[in-house]
Write a structure and sequence with these properties.
About 25% of the residues lie in helices and about 30% in strands. By secondary structure, it is of the alpha+beta class. It folds into two domains: about 220 residues, Cyclophilin-like (Cyclophilin, Beta Barrel); about 80 residues, OB fold (Dihydrolipoamide Acetyltransferase, E2P). A hairpin with a 7-residue loop joins strand 2 and strand 3. The termini are far apart.
């Protein structure tokens, strides 16, 4: 069997700042002790038994990822796996999942690679970020035949490195047809592929044996360190309703309008603030909500902490009005 295929060359910003920000948010507000943090790439290295981060980098950029399906995590996001089993890096997924993933982050979960089609939750381990998988506005260039999605079944994705700044420029130009994507027409032969597997059987088996040993060792480390079974900390910041607060003279309680996780506390007790200044950032429903100061004043008491959970209407702090 031989089927039509394309080699699609995609730019990849390795360990992109947007993915590092997602990891930072996850560590602060979801699971501080996650063994895949603070670096997903280091975790990928360790759980696959590789000698260095450079080995992870080499494999990701050498691999040809065959697109097996489209639509994982929405909007044309590919599910792909490397043709060469020695390039199939394996990981566990986030447990629990992230509440936010940047658009077009590139991650590995199990033995599959995915490019996130849009912002949202997620669980794959990040390696970087690329360009858009879905064009919301126009046809032309790489988006053709009335299809707003970029990739097709049996496409072979190849990554090439670009800097963070280069990727931002590419992401601005690509949806407007100003960035020409390199796409080569080819074919996929099952006969040739089986022959490749047979010729490299010994090397593939050796790689898989070392990989499995490293995977088992990593999971045993979790068990020893008490990280194997995640138990959510359901405690919330200890703030009482307004009616129960012993407010000082001219004191004013400031509450969260939404339920979520505290991403940042922007002030300290004693700080002088102006009306409208952001006091606390709450992450909820994949978005960030700033809780502003309702008046000029001084921060008297703070009830919340970064990473803590809050409910709608829960008091976060007390201001003393000027």
């Amino acid at each position: 069997m031989t089927v039509p295929s394309r080699i699609v060359h995609l730019p990849l910003s390795w360990d992109d700042p947007a993915t590092r920000l997602a990891i930072e948010k996850y560590t602060q507000s979801v699971r501080p002790d996650a063994p895949w943090c603070p670096s997903n790439i280091e975790f990928i290295r360790r759980i696959n038994g590789l000698a260095s981060i450079e080995d992870v980098h080499r494999i990701v950029f050498e691999a040809r990822y065959v697109v097996m399906g489209l639509g994982d995590v929405y909007l044309g996001a590919p599910v792909a796996t490397p043709m060469d089993p020695r390039h199939r890096l394996v990981t566990t997924k986030y447990n629990p999942a992230r509440t936010w993933t940047p658009e077009n982050a590139v991650g590995i979960g199990g033995a599959y690679l995915c490019v996130y089609g849009m912002e949202g939750p997620g669980g794959y381990q990040f390696v970087g970020r690329t360009l858009q998988m879905w064009n919301r506005w126009r046809q032309g260039g790489a988006f053709a035949d009335g299809k707003p999605w970029l990739l097709r079944f049996f496409d072979q994705v190849r990554f090439f490195p670009v800097s963070e700044a280069e990727l931002l420029n590419i992401r601005e130009d690509f949806p407007l047809g100003r960035y020409p994507l390199k796409i080569e027409d080819t074919s996929f032969s099952l006969r040739d592929y089986k022959q490749f597997l047979a010729e490299n059987q010994a090397a593939i088996a050796d790689f898989k044996t070392r990989q499995q040993a490293a995977f088992d060792a990593e999971r045993e480390r979790w068990r020893v360190n008490g990280q194997a079974d995640y138990a959510s900390d359901a405690s919330v910041a200890a703030a009482a309703p307004d009616s129960e607060l012993d407010l000082p003279e001219h004191g004013r309680a400031v509450a969260s309008h939404v339920a979520g996780n505290v991403w940042k506390v922007e002030v300290e007790e004693g700080a002088v603030v102006k009306q409208g200044d952001p006091l606390v950032i709450v992450e909820s429903m994949k978005m960030e909500f700033a809780v502003p100061a309702p008046c000029d004043g001084r921060v008297y008491k703070i009830f919340c902490r970064a990473g803590g959970q809050v409910s709608a209407g829960q008091d976060l702090l007390v201001l003393i009005e000027d």
